[in-house]
Amino acid sequence: MLPPSRRDFVSLTVTDSGGYTNGKQRRQSCWRKWKQLSRLQRSLILFVLALLLIGGLATYPRLSAHWGDAAVEKNGGEGKQPFVVDLKNQARLALPEPPSERKIPHKRGPPVLQNRVQSKGNGSEPQRAEVKNVEEEDESKKLNWRGAVIEAEQGTDPNAKEKEKAAETEKPSVVQQETRLEAVREAFRHAWKGYKDFAWGHDELKPVSKSYAEWFGLGLTLIDALDTMWILGLKKEFQEAREWVDKELSFNKNVDVNLFESTIRILGGLLSTYHLTGDALFLEKAKDIGSRLMPAFSTPSKIPYSDVNIGKGTAHPPRWTSDSTVAEVTSIQLEFRELGHLTGDPKYQAAVMEVMRQVHKLEGKQDGLVPMFINTNSGQFTHLGIYTLGARADSYYEYLLKQWIQGGKKETELLEDYLQAVEGVKKNLLKKSSPLGLTFVGELSHGHFSPKMDHLVCFLPGTLALGAHHGLAAEHMELAQQLMETCYQMYTQMETGLAPEIAHFNMQAGSAQDVDVKLADRHNLLRPETVESLFYLYRFTKDKKYQDWGWEILQSFNKYTRVETGGYTSINNVRDPKYPSPRDKMESFFLGETLKYFYLLFSDDPNLISLDKYVFNTEAHPLPIWSQAE
Ligand code: DMJ
Questions:
Q1: Among 45, 157, 219, 279, whose Cα sits 20 to 30 Å from the Cα of 560?
Q2: Is residue 550 part of a domain?
Q3: Using CA atoms, how far apart are residues 388 and 429, in angstroms rounded to an integer?
C-alpha cells in the first residue's frame, strides 16, 4: 500500500530528452512506476488518455482536408472535386446536386430555355437566380461549378451567355412568328382548294356558287399566285400550277385584254416567277405575252390604248372614249423595262419610257399631282381639276419611285416628279380627322377639298417608307407612320374589322368617330394595300405593332370572308357583322398580293425578298433592282 499522499496525485516523470537511455530499461522502469500507482491513479490516467484519443479522431477529417487543400493548391488546383476546391466558399457546398438537364445549357440553347421557361411560375425563381450567379462566377474562373470538365466548345464561345439570353427572349416571338406564317399558308391552301375544285385554269373563283368567272380567259388567279406559292414554300401546289402553265396556258387567243391589268398580273407574275425559280418556262411565257401586248402602243400620241386583242394583234380604247387612265399608262413600266433587260430588245423599254417622258412634260398638274385621264390622240391630260391618290392615279406615284429604284437611282426626272408629288400631297390633300386627329389623304375637285379616301390610297405609307429606306427624307417615314395608323383605323372602326372600299373622314370637332362610310362604299374586295404598307413599315421599323395589326386583319378576313367549301369572297357590307353579304368573287390579287404581303409581314427574315435587291410591282410581284453598274 502506498502512503495516502501518493494515492491522490498523478505523478509523471519527464526524462531529460537530451540524455541517452536504453529503451528496454526505460520500458521496464515505466512499467514499474505504473505498477506503483494506486488503482484510482491508473483509472484517472486511462480516462484522460481515452478523452485525448476521442478528440483526436473527431478532428482528423478537417485536418486531412486542410492538408489535401494545401496539396491541391500546390498542384495548380485543376481537375479536383468541387468540395475540395470550394472549401473556402461555403455557398457552393450549399448548392444541391444540379438536375441533369442543367448540364445541357452550355451545349445547346433551346432545351435549356424550355426548362427555364417551364420553371417560371413554379416558384423556382430564387433557385434559378442562385444557379445563375454561380455560373457567372465560374465562367470568370473558367471552372465548371459542377466540377465537370468544361468541353472545348463550351468554353470557347465568349458570346454563349448573350446568345442564350437573346434566345430566351426571342423564343416566344419565334413561336408566334411560325404560328402566323402557318396561318397564312393555311389561308392560301384554303383559297387554293376552292380555286382548284371549282375554277381551275379560269380567271377567278366564285366561291359561294362554286363556279368561276372569266375576264381574259387566261388563268389569271393561277398566274398571279405563282410566286406567292414559291415564297410560301407550297411546293406541291406550285408544281401543279407550273404543269398547267406548261401544258395549258396559251396566249394565242382571240381575246381583248386590258393592257394594265394583264401587264401587272400576267407579265409581272411570270417575270417574277422566272427570277425566283430560274425556270426558263416562265421567261418564255413572259416574252410571249409581252410581245402580244405591244400593239397597244401604236397610237397617234404613243400613249397606249387601254385594250389589246392578243390573238389578232390589234388595240383600241374603250368604246365610249379615246382616253386612257393615267395610272394605267404609267404603271406598266417596271414590267416592260425588265422584259427589255432580259431580252436585250430595246423596243419594250423605249415604248414605256416614251410615256413617262411625255407625262413628265405635260401641263395640267397641280404641284406634281396628275389628273386621272390622258388622251391617246392628243397625248394631253383630260378632265382637268380633279386630283386624287386613289383610283386612276394611285400607282403613277408608286411607279415614279419604283422605276427610280429599279434603275439604280440614276433617272433623276423620275425622282424629281416623285418628290414634287409628295410635296403636292402635303400641300393640297393632307388633313386631320376628328376625334382622333388621324392624318388622311383627301381629294381635290376644282379647288374644293373632299375628305374622301379610297382604300387604294393605303399603298402610300408603304411607298413613302420605301423611299425613306432608299435615302429620301426621314420626314417621309414620319408621314408614312401617320398614314399607316389611319389605314389601320379604317379597319378597326368598322364592325367587321374590315375596311370599306371608300372612307369619308370627319373633320368637325366632337365627331363620334373618324371614319364614315356611304352605303354604296361599304364593300371590301379583299384588297392588299393596307397589308402591303404594314409589311414595309414592319420591315423598316421592326415595330411589332404592325405585325399585330396585320394579325387582327387576317382574323377578320377569316371570320367574315372565308367560304367553308374553299376560297374567300369579297363582301358588300363591312358594317354588318351579322350579314356582311358575300359578293361571290375572289379577286386574283387576294392570292397574288394580300396573302403574300401577310406572309412577308409576319416573317422576321429581312432576306425573304430583300428590299435592297427587289422592287415589287404594283401587283406584288418582285422584280430585281438593277445593279449600279448597269
Ligand atoms: C391590284 O390589281 C393592284 O394592286 C393595283 O395597283 C390596284 N388594284 C389591285 C388591288 O387593289
A1: 219
A2: yes
A3: 8
User: Of 117, 141, 174, which one is at a domain's C-terminal end?
Assistant: 174
Selection from 380, 287, 268, 418 nearest residue 334 by Cα: 268
Examine residue 402 and state whether it is found in any structural domain, yes or no.
Answer: yes
Q: State the catalytic residues.
A: 261, 394, 501, 529
Evaluate if residue 121 carries a pLDDT over 50.
no
Q: Tell me: do 127 and 208 sit in the same domain.
A: no
Q: Total domain count for the chain?
A: 3
- Kind of pairing, strands 502-505 and 515-516? antiparallel
Query: Ligand 1 centre and the CA of 619: distance in Å?
Result: 6
**pLDDT on residue 169:** 67
Give burial (CB, 10 Å; 0-12/13-18/19+) of 129. Answer: exposed
Domain co-membership, 538 together with 449: yes
Q: How far is the CA of 391 from the centre of ligand 1 (A)?
A: 9
**Rounded distance from Cα 484 to ligand 1 centre (Å):** 18
Domain range for 136: 85-174
Residue type at 528 in one-letter notation: P
Q: Is 395 in the pocket of ligand 1 (CB under 6 A)?
A: yes
- Ligand 1 atom closest to the Cα of residue 394 is 6
Q: Which CATH number goes with the domain that contains 470?
A: 1.50.10.10
593 CA closest ligand 1 atom index: 4
Cβ of 619 closer than 6 Å to ligand 1, yes or no, is yes
Give CA–CA dist 617/331, Å, rounded.
9
pLDDT tens per residue, range 78-104: 322 222 223 233 322 222 222 232 222
Asked if residue 629 is part of any domain, the answer here is no
Tell which one of 399, 460, 593 to mutate to probe ligand 1, the residue whose CB is within 8 A of the most ligand atoms.
Answer: 593
Name the pLDDT band for 165 (thresholds 50, 70, 90). Answer: confident
Predicted local confidence at residue 203, as pLDDT: 99
Percent of the chain with pLDDT over 70: 76
